[in-house]
Amino acid sequence: MSTNLEARPSSGDPVDDATAERLAVALRCVTVSREEGAASGAEPAAAQASLDTEFRRLGAHLEESFPRVHAELELEKFGHSRLYTWRGVDDTRTAALLLAHQDVVPADEPARWTHPPFAGVVDEEFIWGRGAIDDKSRVLAILEAAEAALTAGLRPRHTVYFAFGHDEEVFGDTGAVQMADRLRRRGVRADLLLDEGGVITDGIVQDVRVPVATIMVGEKGYATVRLSVTDSGGHSSMPGRQTAIGRLARAVSRIQDHPMSLRITPVVTDMLARLRPHLPAAKRRLLGFAGAAAPVVARILAATPQTESLVRTTTAPTVIRGGVKANVLPQQAEALINFRILPGDTVESVLAHCRRTVRDAQVSIELVGMSAEPSPAPTPGPQFGLIAELTRQVAPEAAVTTGLVPGATDSRHYDDLAATRCNFAPIRLTAADLERIHGNDERLSRVNYGRLIDFNRRLFTALAEPDRTR
Ligand SMILES: [Zn+2]
User: Fold this and answer.
1) Rounded distance from Cα 136 to ligand 1 centre (Å)
2) Which residue in 160, 41, 23, 175 sits closest to 103, CA to CA?
3) Residue 118: what are its φ and ψ, rounded to 5°?
4) pLDDT by residue (tens digit) across 432-458?
5) b/e for 340-373, b at 16 or more Cβ within 10 A?
6) For residue 64, how many other CB atoms are within 10 A of its CB?
7) Cα of 100 to ligand 1 centre, how many Å?
8) Annotated catalytic residue within 103, 195, 270, 433
9) CA of 287 to the centre of ligand 1 (A)
10) Nearest residue to 271 (alpha-carbon basis) of 358, 362, 343, 331
């Protein structure tokens, strides 16, 4: 790779073989996070030992590949999570907190992949493997850019942290939470927090004919509600009016049929205002009256699942279990309903909504697993302009807008530690590419990876030279 920032390739340039290979090696480390109780096919102790080995391999690969970073930045470890401190010339202030995660979700259908998910195959166009997008490319791109900046003698004006978690996919309790805690106790308050979330999409935002770069400024909350019914059971020849399964099914369908209400939040208003110039005239006029026509706009957005998630707390019944035999009345039936919570609603209001909607004292309703409140008041912060400007530099073809991360990321653990939060990477993806994340055939093009590295280099340049981008 280039050792001179001035001679760096333009953003349309694919990464060279050596750079692609460094990412591919990381993809060959099987750093898979599994939710508790999910079978890995091995004994728990053996599975943990092999996971530890994979994380250590990844760590050793990073240390070998980025010698200057590891010589000049301070590194603290929290389990397999890595917190790097890049001291600023003036270290009384923190410029940025860059988050990324080293763990990946499992690849449950390896036979359906073009290349085995952990083979780390590089071809002319793509780097293939679980984690190529989510999120090892961001770990490596930050380190590639930092290594280049150090080689060029660049130093940030104010301190920059990299926090690379190891358990984001299982909610970050032993990684992100610990690192955030350390920073909090140190009194860190960063100007900018940058993490995964939004990307540049092609053909996903209806009626917008240019690619859309969605710099997300917060995230939705998360809750899973368990509905369960217990019954005395008995023989199916004398079932009574309703079995446990019938009662549960009615409760699930009530919840499914009565979603929480549609609402336009300030971040959606902001998003639409930024997209407005790129919309056809008729839609533009409609949005011009968005204040008056908010219910209309909400209904338009609610028409497709991709945009519906912007205007309401979504309801997804995801698991149902009950019964053992066709001629035996079930004694137990349960269902899990996953909610992604819009700012303004809360975990508690979701639970209250379920109770109100089910209206059946025989159905018990409770929260299970991880839950998280939505970002309190997501808005573009003061440093949003810097990220938007860097995005325009590396992807001049894209319309830049804001948005909300539909899922939970590690950044929620750091929300109070930064004045501006952006969830974004400038990689350009189609709808099919988005399905590869957590799906089959995850891959990142060399061009996208090149742009991601370039974006981080430009960020470090901007943080080193005050007047360059403002
Ligand atoms: Zn991720």
Assistant:
1) 9
2) 175
3) -115, 25
4) 899 999 899 999 999 999 999 999 999
5) bbbbebbbeebbebbeebbebeebebebeeebbb
6) 11
7) 8
8) 103
9) 33
10) 343
Burial (CB count <10 Å: 0-12, 13-18, 19+), residue 29: buried
Give 308: exposed, middle or buried? Use CB within 10 Å, 0-12, 13-18, 19+.
middle
Beta strand pairing status for 81-86 and 332-341?
A: unpaired
Q: Which among 54, 144, 168, 433 is annotated as catalytic? A: 168
Backbone Cα Rg of the chain: 24
144 a catalytic residue? no
Kindly report, residue by residue over 23-70, the tens digit of the pLDDT.
Answer: 999 999 999 998 765 656 667 888 899 999 999 999 999 999 999 999
Residue 133: name the closest of 446, 459, 442, 447 by CA: 442
Distance of CA 431 to the CA centre of its chain: 16
C-alpha 291 to ligand 1 mean position (Å): 35
DSSP codes of every residue in 260-313: PPP---HHHHHHHHHHGGGS-HHHHHHHHTHHHHHHHHHHHHTTSHHHHHHHS-
User: How many of the other CB atoms lie within 10 Å of CB of 3?
Assistant: 10
CA separation for the pair 251, 337 (Å, rounded): 11
Q: How far is the CA of 135 from the centre of ligand 1 (A)?
A: 5
Tokens of residue 246, six digits: 């019938």
Q: Yes or no: say if 354 and 339 are a contact pair by the CB < 8 Å rule.
A: no
Residue with tokens 């590396």: 394
Q: Is the pLDDT of residue 10 over 70?
A: no
Q: Which of 11, 64, 47, 53 has the alpha carbon at shortest distance from 29?
A: 53
The whole-angstrom separation of Cα 140 and Cα 147 is 10
> Which residue reads 């205002």 in tokens?
273
DSSP label at residue 61: H
